Amino acid sequence: MSSKDWIEKDFYAVLGVDKAASADDIKKAYRKLARESHPDHNPGDPKAEERFKAASEAYNVLSDSGRRREYDEMRSLFGSGAFRRNARGGGQPGGMPFDVSDMFGGGGGDRRFGGAGFQDLFSSIFTGGQAGGAAAPRGPARGRDVETEVALDFGDAVRGVTLPLTLRAPGVCDTCHGNGAKPGTQPRTCPVCHGAGVTNRNQGSFSFSEPCRNCQGVGTVVEEKCPECHGSGGVTKTRTMNVRFPAGVADGQRIRLAGRGEPGERGGPAGDLFVHVKVRPDELFGRTGDDLTLTVPVTFAEAVLGTDLRVPTLDGAVTLRVPPGTPSGRVLRARGKGVVRREGQVGDLLVTLDVVVPARLSDEARTALEAFAEQSPPAAREHLDARVRRVS
């Protein structure tokens, strides 16, 4: 991303968030856009791919607090008119015209101001660059992080599973191995910036550094371009890797795979891959932390008289004793039948009893229940009756 992009592109508008949005709001907006416009979900749709790239570009800046601060400062400074074309210095006639495109040149540059941060850039503008006019060579740059989402079955999330994950993302060109040159040739050092990637330029009373226009800020020139990547050194490729999801991974959890993101530039390290986990709900079981939950219906007679209850687990079944006189909603605990963590921590299975009231009774059952009701003591409702009498 060039420095000029930081001025011309409204990353907040791309993600559809306010400038004062929190980091969580920015993350949620990016995930929503990434899911909707991901190339895997929109095959053959170039507009969706562009939206996906734009959202990734915006998130790459706004998700980093330091880069977001520099971006806001940059936009604020230029938005104030301080550097607009034909601005007049101090409001007096005779001011020097200033063209933003002159400042940044026509090159792509590095992802942040041609390899320099916000403070370095303006330090160069007003101080004339480094001592002796020498531009510092651009060093290795870390690759961008990549995010994706994976849906797991409930049982796989509890027990752990290894799944193949297919990604379509930028990667190093296999033909030229990232240098952009045709096989059998090599890039040569740029004769203008001598490999630094930036040049010093004087304009009136100002002197500042800018990305080299001859090599686009890379420091090398490719004379015979790779036929596969056309000199860029990278291509969008599909790659498949096996990802291990540990036992007990939870819905919404993010797993970091170091070095599995986009490749770095000029020998820099690759970014990371972040996998967001979505766990499909199970038809029987729920989950609270490391405990599994299960609701089991029981009859009125079973609750009153007690019974042995056979209930399923994720890997078999257990028998639980329902004591006589158990009320509806009571929770029974099967220890060690919940989520097993790789650290050795084990949860329980929590079984909630739901006393079922039949909607219809046979004549025999009704007669038996009426006889039971006559022999049963009334429910203790004196405290309720007292309140009824006071409000009546």
From TrEMBL:
<feature type="repeat" description="CXXCXGXG motif">
    <location>
        <begin position="212"/>
        <end position="219"/>
    </location>
</feature>
<feature type="binding site">
    <location>
        <position position="173"/>
    </location>
    <ligand>
        <name>Zn(2+) 1</name>
    </ligand>
</feature>
<dbReference type="InterPro" id="IPR008971">
    <property type="entry name" value="HSP40/DnaJ_pept-bd"/>
</dbReference>
<feature type="binding site">
    <location>
        <position position="212"/>
    </location>
    <ligand>
        <name>Zn(2+) 2</name>
    </ligand>
</feature>
<comment type="similarity">
    <text>Belongs to the DnaJ family.</text>
</comment>
<feature type="repeat" description="CXXCXGXG motif">
    <location>
        <begin position="226"/>
        <end position="233"/>
    </location>
</feature>
<dbReference type="InterPro" id="IPR018253">
    <property type="entry name" value="DnaJ_domain_CS"/>
</dbReference>
<keyword id="KW-0677">Repeat</keyword>
<dbReference type="InterPro" id="IPR012724">
    <property type="entry name" value="DnaJ"/>
</dbReference>
<keyword id="KW-0963">Cytoplasm</keyword>
<dbReference type="Pfam" id="PF01556">
    <property type="entry name" value="DnaJ_C"/>
</dbReference>
<feature type="domain" description="J">
    <location>
        <begin position="10"/>
        <end position="75"/>
    </location>
</feature>
<dbReference type="InterPro" id="IPR001305">
    <property type="entry name" value="HSP_DnaJ_Cys-rich_dom"/>
</dbReference>
<dbReference type="Pfam" id="PF00684">
    <property type="entry name" value="DnaJ_CXXCXGXG"/>
</dbReference>
<feature type="binding site">
    <location>
        <position position="190"/>
    </location>
    <ligand>
        <name>Zn(2+) 2</name>
    </ligand>
</feature>
<dbReference type="InterPro" id="IPR036869">
    <property type="entry name" value="J_dom_sf"/>
</dbReference>
<keyword id="KW-0235">DNA replication</keyword>
<feature type="binding site">
    <location>
        <position position="215"/>
    </location>
    <ligand>
        <name>Zn(2+) 2</name>
    </ligand>
</feature>
<dbReference type="Pfam" id="PF00226">
    <property type="entry name" value="DnaJ"/>
</dbReference>
<feature type="binding site">
    <location>
        <position position="193"/>
    </location>
    <ligand>
        <name>Zn(2+) 2</name>
    </ligand>
</feature>
<comment type="function">
    <text>Participates actively in the response to hyperosmotic and heat shock by preventing the aggregation of stress-denatured proteins and by disaggregating proteins, also in an autonomous, DnaK-independent fashion. Unfolded proteins bind initially to DnaJ; upon interaction with the DnaJ-bound protein, DnaK hydrolyzes its bound ATP, resulting in the formation of a stable complex. GrpE releases ADP from DnaK; ATP binding to DnaK triggers the release of the substrate protein, thus completing the reaction cycle.</text>
</comment>
<feature type="binding site">
    <location>
        <position position="229"/>
    </location>
    <ligand>
        <name>Zn(2+) 1</name>
    </ligand>
</feature>
<keyword id="KW-0346">Stress response</keyword>
<feature type="binding site">
    <location>
        <position position="176"/>
    </location>
    <ligand>
        <name>Zn(2+) 1</name>
    </ligand>
</feature>
<feature type="repeat" description="CXXCXGXG motif">
    <location>
        <begin position="173"/>
        <end position="180"/>
    </location>
</feature>
<dbReference type="InterPro" id="IPR036410">
    <property type="entry name" value="HSP_DnaJ_Cys-rich_dom_sf"/>
</dbReference>
<feature type="repeat" description="CXXCXGXG motif">
    <location>
        <begin position="190"/>
        <end position="197"/>
    </location>
</feature>
<keyword id="KW-0862">Zinc</keyword>
<dbReference type="InterPro" id="IPR002939">
    <property type="entry name" value="DnaJ_C"/>
</dbReference>
<feature type="binding site">
    <location>
        <position position="226"/>
    </location>
    <ligand>
        <name>Zn(2+) 1</name>
    </ligand>
</feature>
<keyword id="KW-0479">Metal-binding</keyword>
<protein>
    <recommendedName>
        <fullName>Chaperone protein DnaJ</fullName>
    </recommendedName>
</protein>
<dbReference type="InterPro" id="IPR001623">
    <property type="entry name" value="DnaJ_domain"/>
</dbReference>
<feature type="domain" description="CR-type">
    <location>
        <begin position="160"/>
        <end position="238"/>
    </location>
</feature>
<keyword id="KW-0143">Chaperone</keyword>
<feature type="zinc finger region" description="CR-type">
    <location>
        <begin position="160"/>
        <end position="238"/>
    </location>
</feature>
<comment type="subunit">
    <text>Homodimer.</text>
</comment>
<keyword id="KW-0863">Zinc-finger</keyword>
